Please model this.
Amino acid sequence: MTYTTQMLEIHHASAVDPHTVASAINALTDCAQACMVDIDADLGVSNLSEMVKCIRLCQHCTDVCATTARVISRPAEYDAQVTVPLLEACLAICKACADECEVHARHHEHCRVCAEACRDCESHCRQLLATLK
Amino acid sequence: MTYTTQMLEIHHASAVDPHTVASAINALTDCAQACMVDIDADLGVSNLSEMVKCIRLCQHCTDVCATTARVISRPAEYDAQVTVPLLEACLAICKACADECEVHARHHEHCRVCAEACRDCESHCRQLLATLK
Amino acid sequence: MTYTTQMLEIHHASAVDPHTVASAINALTDCAQACMVDIDADLGVSNLSEMVKCIRLCQHCTDVCATTARVISRPAEYDAQVTVPLLEACLAICKACADECEVHARHHEHCRVCAEACRDCESHCRQLLATLK
Amino acid sequence: MTYTTQMLEIHHASAVDPHTVASAINALTDCAQACMVDIDADLGVSNLSEMVKCIRLCQHCTDVCATTARVISRPAEYDAQVTVPLLEACLAICKACADECEVHARHHEHCRVCAEACRDCESHCRQLLATLK
Model:
């Protein structure tokens, strides 16, 4: 069990189940990290010019996931008008990034794993959105 | 003229006017900074217990503004499904944060200035959204 | 095994053992998250005025840990002149934050867990520093 | 005058001159932004394979500058053991990034401007370090 999960079990400050939030946060931070490593790996491949879109989407994905994790880590001042569109943006970039990584998955193992991290995160965002709306 | 503005004039990679984007980025980063200093100042006031909501909203505002600035600083892989909800989340938190800071503006000069930074940013997000939609 | 760990096993771009880096990244992101939840919990306690130092240190800790994780997630362009002082700053803030959280650990369960996350991260930074120097 | 400058004039919480801090923050955020746009521009050039080092250094520079700005925006809980090595890491990455951008400055206008932003930030970090030590 991560510290995040333990912390949210103790600091149970919203109507949303703390385990749903904690597992979303873990998916978000792991996806943000995977995308960061993916960029570093993409920049070293021989077919670099074909990886430009992948690098760009991974950059957006890292930033949006990391900030979404921060916002939902602070449940006490929850505001649907902020959290809902933020999760929608996050879901959209995770989907776009997974789609693009899958294009390269056969040739680049790092893209195959990154695509999984993005899909996983996309699905966690979708679940959390369903709970919040 | 900031370096951001110069950079976006040179790297003119989207259909959106670079000056609109650059001035939105400047408003976003300045708002993120103002909120960060506001939290530090709020934590030092004598009526601290009345500032909790303000601190919480400023934390969200800092993070959402900073990430929105990052995403729109990379115009080459623009995706409306990501940028539009992100700007909507940003606009909502800037508005909420400005509203709360205004409550304290009469007693705390730092909240008065922070409210202005949030309003300014809210209006830049609105303008950019109107251009993108 | 997190996606971060899988990614760094594949993208083995530096002389440093990928498992050491991956477990440091996991400790850093988990500590950053724990501190963020701790701030939200601190802001809700009845003895709020005694928690100001804790909140302030947790804010610094979150930001320094999150950025240190980002930098070491990109091993291909490793520069000791950047990574070593960054890890030193990170170690120092984790230690300061753990010390302060421990003061409140008896009364606030969330501070007890956050102190553990900080100590864990401090120890991972120390190990990674020993490898790099 | 930016909102950051106004905020730090009001929230005068450390021994350091607020104008020195505010102008360092402005240089740090502008440098972080310039590097982000530089990456986006680099990814679009025809000699992409020669820009890999530049992209990698700009990524580190963005993150370290943005976090340094956050930490020095909260002067009330200042700790030299954190701030000094953080500024040293920041100075080192700004210098490395400026050196690399200058290599490409003759061919890429966006690298010429980014190098200036990095040099400017390097010099502000140096000045602030001299004040703190």
Observations:
- Residues 18-42 of chain A form the longest helix (25 residues).
- Helices of chain A lie at 3-10, 18-42, 52-72, 80-104, 109-132.
- Chain A has five helices and no strands.
